[in-house]
Specification:
Elements: E1 3-8, H1 13-25, H2 38-55, E2 59-63, H3 76-96, E3 101-105, H4 115-129, E4 133-136, H5 156-165, E5 169-171, H6 183-199, H7 203-206, E6 212-214, H8 225-233, H9 247-251, E7 255-257, H10 263-273, E8 278-279, H11 303-307, H12 314-328
Length: 337
């Protein structure tokens, strides 16, 4: 069985036209109707399943397209209404493809609210609509304001709800409006900051069962691990860390997806954190859904890459392709006992 733990919804243009109208009117015309039928959602879902069958994926966990989340938009009601709409589309599409698609929620992370309100939205998504996890944006201000880092107690109400519900978060930022980087570059920046601020804090001592997956292979952290190892050993620098442990022990508290479109980078990730901390993900549809000139396969067709790593055992591959995701997403048991 192959579980793709990082993928995004395939939905018609009408969904994004609805969002455009919300943003253009600033919500002054009310929330309105999305106007996407089950028949249309089934058609777009069949496109997803066709790709899954072509690459051998059994189950795909689909979430909102992160660049469209628009968390920094104002007023906050347009963010709430949009997230409600896209989550509804995801839940309906997953219901049309039982056993093939599972729902991962977006949260209405408007800065007019805060983690307590976002946690309430997470609770509704899980208990009322059957979502099995969610996207966590570490920078809902989208580069245009200060947000406390993930190691800060600001986030504790959300962590408490995650632990109570036993649902994981996939770290994934959204847009970026500061002009210094594109949204795709911002993803990697925020993932790197997320890893370091979490591991430099006592979050995992306070919430030992907290489950966090870092998207895109952990940002820059595996590539720069020598710097962070050295900082933990340095007699002056190590004083800034909440917990006295090696960086290799600390990084073992997180999970990482395989959304790296370069075999050498993916090999480095797995060798750095271990097969037991990697979950298969493709981000389909995403930036990697283009042919690799060297192979003719899409860059996000990652199963053949992992199958080709001679240093992995069959047990390692089973962890990456299925078992790690089953442990991280216990609510999947209702779909795949």
């Amino acid at each position: 069985m192959i579980i793709d733990a990082h993928a995004h919804v395939n939905a018609p243009p009408a969904l994004y036209a609805y969002q455009a109208n919300l943003l253009a009117s600033r919500g002054s015309h009310g929330r309105g109707d999305v106007g996407v039928s089950d028949a249309v959602l089934k058609d777009w879902g069949e496109r997803t399943v066709q790709v899954m069958d072509g690459v051998g994926t059994t189950l795909q966990l689909i979430s909102p397209r992160p660049y469209s989340l628009s968390h920094a938009s104002t007023p906050g009601r347009v963010v709430r209404w949009w997230i409600d709409a896209v989550n509804d589309v995801i839940a309906r599409q997953c219901a049309l493809f039982p056993g093939r698609l599972a729902a991962v929620a977006g949260l209405p992370q408007t800065m007019e609210d805060g983690p307590a309100q976002w946690a309430a939205a997470l609770r509704r998504a899980v208990t009322e609509y059957g979502f099995v996890g969610f996207l966590l944006n570490p920078d809902p201000a989208e580069g245009m304001g200060h947000v406390p880092p993930l190691g800060n107690e600001y986030w504790y109400p959300l962590y408490e709800t995650m632990v109570e519900l036993s649902v994981p978060a996939l770290i994934h930022s959204s847009g970026c409006g500061n002009g210094r980087e594109t949204y795709s570059e911002h993803f990697i920046t925020e993932e790197s900051i997320a890893v370091l601020t979490l591991l430099n804090s006592d979050v995992f001592q306070r919430f030992p069962t907290l489950k966090i997956i870092v998207g895109h292979g952990g940002g820059s952290v595996p590539y720069q691990i020598g710097r962070w190892r050295a900082a933990r050993l340095h007699p002056r620098l190590r004083q800034g860390y909440a917990i006295d442990e090696s960086f290799d022990d600390a990084i073992g508290r997180l999970w990482f997806d395989t959304v790296l479109h370069n075999p050498d980078s993916l090999e480095l990730l797995i060798k750095t954190v271990g097969a037991g901390r990697c979950v298969f993900g493709t981000e389909k549809p995403g930036s990697g859904s283009v042919p690799d000139p060297a192979t003719g396969r899409d860059l996000d067709d990652l199963k053949p890459v992992i199958d080709g790593f001679g240093f992995l055992t069959d047990a390692d591959r089973q962890l990456i392709f299925e078992q790690n995701a089953r442990g991280l997403f216990p609510l999947l048991s209702s779909l795949w006992p």
